[in-house]
Design brief:
It catalyses: D-fructose 6-phosphate + L-glutamine = D-glucosamine 6-phosphate + L-glutamate. The protein is an alpha/beta fold. About 45% of the residues lie in helices and about 15% in strands. Helix 11 links the parallel strand 8 and strand 9. The structure holds fructose -6-phosphate.
């Protein structure tokens, strides 16, 4: 079933243009570039707060979505990892949408958090890849991802499909709240529909990434930096690397580096910088200077414009297509997944079945 691929993870990375297109196809109407959600029986414009709860990679998808809900729908968003959420005493007021994100739909902590929110009067939204799962059954608003079965333990295609659904949901909420005009909605939908082609161009850099993996494989620690909606991607990149290559990695907000992690920087700690060009690019460039001044080695992932501006003197660069900021988190997922994958291959680890991990964590 792996076809021409060496691993399920690799196959699943390469499936992303197709499955993201499939997922977008069920939430966006191409005939008039509008968002079309499944039927549900509550008024989404009256939602006063969104509480997002998930674990691991699904949690990082939620972190990206927080930027979108706030930016488009101007709704306050709380987000928590499920294992913390269920044991604090979260304030759940009337008119709240509690949103659970899960590939499997069976993660024990997330499911327990869902039930807690239900008992506390929240409307339950579920973004899930397994339509027959427990979470799917308990949803008021079921938003399936159409990633198909994900076999590799490290989540890849489920993540980008979650992002696709969450972007559509945030836009839909903005439209219903009267905060997004018809023209703006058309524009957002058009940008989302550009995602599959952009994912394909990102995948074209597979060989470049494979050939630089040996530069990262010897490292004991790796830092990932990103800003804005690409900050969760830095954490996702670090999670992927640690899961399958067993290299210690941390993701930080670029601007937070000088508040501590910079102490780690030396020539043995590669720093992977995720930075599409844009208004905040200059700030990231100064963060890169701080790394360089301490002998740090940078791998810059950016578009042609960003690489032109800041690519010189980097250990390596990975070129991404120039995309609208809305779809950048989907596109930049590809190089961090591929980098983790190729580093793991260099190290010879069991990519699809990394040690100590289970595909679905159904115990607390
Ligand atoms: C990371 C990974 C895990 C899962 C987490 C949540 O590659 O696979 O961090 O994302 O266990 O699983 P789901 O999404 O099934 O709730």
């Amino acid at each position: 079933e792996k076809g021409n691929y060496r691993h399920f993870m690799q196959k699943e990375i390469f499936e992303q243009p197709t499955v993201v297109a499939q997922t977008l196809g069920s939430y966006l109407r191409q005939s008039d570039n509008s968002v079309a959600l499944p039927q549900f029986d509550f008024d989404i414009s009256s939602i006063r707060r969104v509480t997002i709860v998930a674990c691991g990679t699904s949690y990082y998808a939620g972190m990206v979505a927080k930027y979108w809900f706030e930016q488009f729908a101007r709704v306050p968003v709380d987000i928590d990892v499920a294992s913390e959420f269920r044991y604090r005493e979260p304030v759940l007021e009337d008119g709240g949408l509690a949103l659970f994100i899960s590939q499997s739909g069976e993660t024990a902590d997330t499911l327990a958090a869902l039930r807690h929110c239900k008992e506390n009067g929240q409307t339950i939204g579920v973004v899930v890849n397994v339509p027959t799962s427990s979470m799917a059954r308990e949803a008021d608003l079921l938003l399936p991802t159409h990633a198909g079965p994900e076999i590799g333990v490290a989540s890849t295609k489920a993540f980008t499909c979650q992002l696709a659904v969450l972007a559509a949901l945030a836009a839909h909420m903005a439209v219903k709240k009267g905060l997004m005009s018809r023209a703006e909605e058309q524009e957002v939908v058009a940008h989302l529909l550009e995602a599959p082609a952009a994912l394909n161009s990102a995948l074209d850099h597979d060989d470049d990434i494979a050939s630089m993996a040996h530069l990262i494989a010897p490292a004991r620690d790796v830092l990932y930096l990103g800003r804005g909606p690409d900050y969760p991607l830095a954490m996702e990149g670090a999670l992927k690397l640690k899961e399958i290559s067993y290299i210690h990695a941390e993701g930080y907000a670029s601007g937070e580096m000088k508040h501590g992690p910079i102490a780690l920087i030396d020539e043995a700690v590669p720093v992977i910088v995720l930075a599409p060009s844009g208004p905040l690019f200059e700030k990231t460039v100064s963060n890169m200077e701080e790394v360089r001044a301490r002998g740090g080695k940078i791998v810059l992932i950016s578009d042609a414009e960003g690489l032109e501006q800041a690519g010189e003197g980097c250990l390596a660069t990975i070129e991404m297509p120039r995309v609208h900021p809305l779809i950048a988190p989907l596109v930049y997922a590809i190089p961090v997944q591929l980098l983790a994958y190729h580093v793991a291959c260099v190290k010879g680890t069991d990519v699809d079945q990394p040690r100590n991990l289970a595909k679905s964590v159904t115990v607390e």
